[in-house]
Amino acid sequence: MKYLSVHMDAAAVTASATALSKQEIFTALAKKASQCYGLNAEMVVDRLNDREALGSTGFGGSVAIPHARIKELDQCVGLFIRLKQSIGFDAHDGQDVDLIFGLLSPEQGSADHLKALAEVSRFLRDESIVAKLRGAASEDALYVLLTGQQDQQAA
Fold first, then answer.
1. Which of 7, 67, 92, 113 is flagged as catalytic?
2. What integer best gives the mean pLDDT of the chain?
């Protein structure tokens, strides 16, 4: 099975979140980005909104990949949320979204950002992987499915 190479902390994975809107998703992603990667949450929300204003990051199959470039980062980092109930996200296929992968990239790393975005997109287009993500019993299981790594802090 393939795994993502994007850096992701185990604490950046949420297994059963509740959200009513895209803005609540962005706020949850920003809060995790602050906790896991030391970023300013308000700034992350602003950057995600700026990108979303260009067009929806809901790309189909009930999956969204909101992404933004962040000056303070030196590598691409990921955040993942699985919703208890899907929400509207203005996705191109009109489907509500229940799996959200937030991708934050260095402001100056255009090539790295595009490579990471393409990798995440390919990963989340695989129906068997998406089914496993939807069926995973815990955040630890989701983390392993996404990265192939066990959370070393859990031991």
1. 67
2. 93
